TrEMBL record:
Keywords: Endonuclease, Hydrolase, Nuclease. Residues 189-248 form the HNH nuclease domain. It holds the Pfam family SRA_ScoMcrA. InterPro entries: HNH (IPR002711), HNH_nuc (IPR003615), SRA_ScoMcrA (IPR058712). It comes from Parasaccharibacter apium. This is HNH endonuclease. It comes from the Bacteria. GO terms for molecular function: endonuclease activity.
């Protein structure tokens, strides 16, 4: 799915988000049942009810989980954030700067892990809070040189697939310092497997890779079928290895929706 939200553009939460995609209209975490995404809201008033959200210098976002009183638990919306990759859900972050005002789209994020830290709850009492480190997807797109490395030759396709499936499992508890490294490692595991699965041919047009890299590997690119940009871990059933031409077509072609739907079905058949 290609989300209709533009980076840093403001939207009316009820009319532009929930009326179209569903999900809870109150609270900081909205989990619509029939949309491939989780809506996260932060901003105005958050600090007054015990939440201490903040953008970090490296671009990541520290997001306090769900629960206003007492210790937080890894249930409901918190669990949805933790398991979003495994469940095929994007994380969409919106920020509200004025009470009752519109929310600004801050982009797509990936959960890099979480910490348990002490914060006051709504009554000012100390409690154990779940604080997620969310990493922006737009900072995770792989450079061509990285893509050109290809899959490691010392692992079988079955081993690469197992590693990729494990990478889609929810993030472990970790510090913000290593969250970005975790996300990159998980992303690479999925990409390595997908490139090996293609066996040198584009999974869209089925043509051979346009050239070999300096290491002798067929050059193909990892395409995240559901996403506007390619970055961050995903499930192997929603990532394809495609030639550069099909990759651009999947993002910018007038038939991009049809192509991505066809590609999604083809990849799911491969994974079955």
């Amino acid at each position: 799915m290609l989300w209709p939200f533009e980076l840093h553009r403001s939207y009316h939460r009820r009319n532009d988000i929930h009326a179209r995609f569903g999900g809870q209209q109150q609270g900081g975490i909205s989990t619509p049942a029939d949309a491939p995404g989780i809506f996260i809201f932060t901003g105005h008033g958050a600090g007054h009810v015990g939440y201490q959200d903040a953008f970090e210098a490296d671009g990541s976002f520290r997001y306090t989980g769900q629960g206003q009183l007492g210790d937080m638990r890894m249930i409901s919306g918190n669990r949805a954030i933790r398991d979003h990759v495994q469940n095929g859900k994007d994380l969409l972050l919106f920020q509200q700067t004025k009470k009752g005002g519109p929310v600004r789209f801050e982009g797509l994020y990936v959960c890099g892990g979480w910490e348990i830290e002490q914060q006051p709850d709504m009554d000012g009492q100390p409690r154990q809070a779940i604080v997620f480190t969310l990493v922006p997807q737009n900072g995770l797109s792989s450079e061509a040189e990285d893509l050109a490395e290809g899959a490691p030759i010392d692992l079988s396709l079955a081993e690469l697939r197992e590693r990729a499936l494990q990478a889609a499992v929810g993030s472990n508890e970790t510090s913000p310092r290593i969250a970005l490294a975790n996300v990159r490692a998980r992303s690479k595991a999925v990409r390595d497997y997908v490139l090996a699965r293609a066996a040198g041919a584009c999974e869209a047009c089925r043509s051979p890779a346009p050239f070999l890299t300096s290491s002798g590997q067929p050059y193909l690119e990892a395409h995240h079928i559901h996403k506007l940009s390619d970055g961050g871990p995903d499930h192997p059933a929603s990532v394809a290895a495609v030639c550069p031409n099909c990759h651009r077509r999947a993002h910018f072609g007038e038939d991009q929706i049809t192509l991505n739907n066809e590609l999604l079905e083809r990849v799911k058949q491969l994974e079955q």
